[in-house]
Design a protein that fits this description.
There is one protein chain. The protein contains 4 helices and 14 strands. It has one domain (58-264): Jelly Rolls, CATH 2.60.120. Strands 1, 3, 4, 7, 10, 11, 12 and 14 form an 8-stranded antiparallel β-sheet that branches. By secondary structure, it is an alpha+beta fold.
């Protein structure tokens, strides 16, 4: 909120500094502007750098930047032997294993941030509330789409940031291939809210009328477990294309904290 300010006192003309003396301040103003630019330009250039935990110890890095510790293959007891690798702090899928990764732990009531990029026509996904009840993870776990348009445009419903098959992407948030993207997901109770590159895609309620209607009109309508849970594993999909992840982090949110965040407008990216 802006602070009240007083109007400046008007100096009588006989006490005003002559105009020729005020010219001396111009070099100082130029130096000040140059200094501000020197400070601002590095911040702009770092926009494509990975986000940090902002000094907040409540963030848990699901991907530690060194290994697949904390992850295993979907419906498997350990991480895939090939296809997924870690190099120079980046988690990479070359698309050859066709095995999706899931967290070893089950998560509930959290905020999730994933930074990723993929090749032209690259396809992958971030999955939430997975329970391994189906042969393919996508038929029990809602998926936030990872995609980069190349020669093929899958349509707004399947572009990056879409809650696949349910809520379409926001076109203005879609980036070119090999550009780093940030996907943010808030899951508290029955609420699921998704942002893609700081643009909100949806804010919905599991089991609500709109949610159920979306599912009944999708290819998941015959799945008995899709979109029913409010907790589960978090997954990263191998869809046969190259995809890179540099940040996968989560912080737990109790419902009272979520209500406080809403009031303080902290749920927005």
């Amino acid at each position: 909120m802006a602070k009240d300010c007083e109007l400046p006192l008007v100096t009588p003309s006989r006490f005003r500094r002559p105009k020729e003396q005020s010219v001396k301040h111009i070099p100082f103003m130029r130096l000040l502007l140059v200094g501000l630019l020197v400070i601002a330009i590095p911040q702009i250039c770092q926009a494509d750098e990975p986000s940090q935990a902002d000094g907040d110890s409540s963030w848990q890095r699901l991907f530690d930047g060194r290994s697949l510790t904390g992850w295993r293959g979907y419906r498997q007891t350990k991480a895939p032997a090939s296809g997924w690798s870690v190099t120079e702090g980046i988690l990479f899928s070359d698309g050859s294993s066709r095995t999706d990764l899931i967290t070893t732990e089950i998560h509930e009531d959290y905020e999730l941030i994933v930074e990723w990029r993929t090749e032209a026509d690259g396809n992958s996904g971030i999955l939430i509330h997975a329970d391994e009840s189906t042969k393919k993870i996508a038929f029990n776990a809602p998926e936030i789409q990872i995609y980069a348009i190349g020669q093929r445009d899958p349509g707004i419903g399947h572009q990056a940031g879409a809650l696949y098959g349910l809520y379409p992407a926001i076109k203005s948030s879609v980036q070119p291939p090999m550009t780093w993207n940030t996907t943010r997901v808030l899951c508290v109770g029955k609420r699921i809210a998704v942002w893609h590159n700081a643009t909100q895609v949806c804010d919905t309620v599991v089991g609500g009328d709109e949610w159920n209607q979306k599912i009944s009109g999708s290819k998941f309508s015959k799945s008995l477990t899709f979109g029913k849970r409010t907790s589960g594993h978090i997954g990263l999909q191998d869809h046969g294309k190259k995809v890179w992840f540099r940040v996968v982090k989560l912080r737990s949110i109790v419902k009272k904290q979520a209500a406080d965040q809403e009031k303080k407008n902290l749920c927005r990216p």
